[in-house]
């Protein structure tokens, strides 16, 4: 998800922090289970924590082009959209592959990575 956003976020609106890192601890007040869940997508926006499918739709709202259209689904209730989110999260490696190593950010992306 991070690579997807970085490639499309031309205005550099998004910054990223590991859920186990100091920045996430300071802002998100998460349980250990939440912080360790590899399928977690969490957005911190204007003092609010946005999670799961709502976070994805929020992100799409700020990406250029046709991606913006997906933000219309933010109006779906979470009991409808979150099961789909979890299904995609469980199957993402099967569908999109898994990297053997962490991506090294390009120099122009480095400032978007928080501790």
Break the fold down into its secondary structure elements and pairings.
Elements: H1 2-8, H2 22-28, H3 32-36, E1 42-45, E2 48-51, H4 52-62, H5 78-96
Antiparallel strand pairs: 1-2
Strand order of the largest sheet: 1-2
How many domains? The number is 1
Question: How much of the polypeptide forms β-strand, as a percent range?
Answer: 5-15%
Task: Please bin the fraction of helical residues.
Answer: 40-55%
Describe the largest sheet. Answer: 2 strands, antiparallel
| Overall pLDDT confidence | 85
Q: Taking Cα atoms only, what radius of gyration do you get, to the nearest Å?
A: 14 Å
Ends apart, CA distance between termini: 18 Å
| Shape assignment | globular
Number of strands: 2
Could you give the order of the helices and strands? HHHEEHH
What is the count of helical runs? 5
Helix-and-strand structural type: mainly alpha
Pick out the low-confidence regions. Answer: none
Q: Can you describe what's shown?
A:
This protein is mainly α and 115 residues long. It has one domain (2-95). Helices cover 43% and strands 7% of the residues. It has a two-stranded antiparallel ribbon.
Summarize the structure.
The chain is mainly α and 115 residues long.
């Amino acid at each position: 998800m991070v690579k997807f956003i970085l490639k499309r976020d031309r205005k550099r609106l998004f910054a990223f922090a590991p859920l186990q890192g100091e920045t996430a601890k300071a802002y998100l007040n998460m349980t250990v289970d939440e912080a360790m869940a590899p399928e977690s997508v969490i957005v911190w926006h204007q003092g609010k924590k946005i999670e799961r499918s709502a976070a994805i739709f929020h992100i799409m709202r700020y990406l250029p082009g046709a991606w913006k259209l997906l933000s219309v689904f933010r109006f779906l209730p979470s009991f409808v959209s979150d099961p789909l989110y979890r299904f995609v999260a469980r199957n993402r490696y099967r569908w999109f592959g898994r990297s053997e190593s962490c991506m090294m950010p390009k120099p122009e992306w480095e400032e978007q990575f928080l501790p």
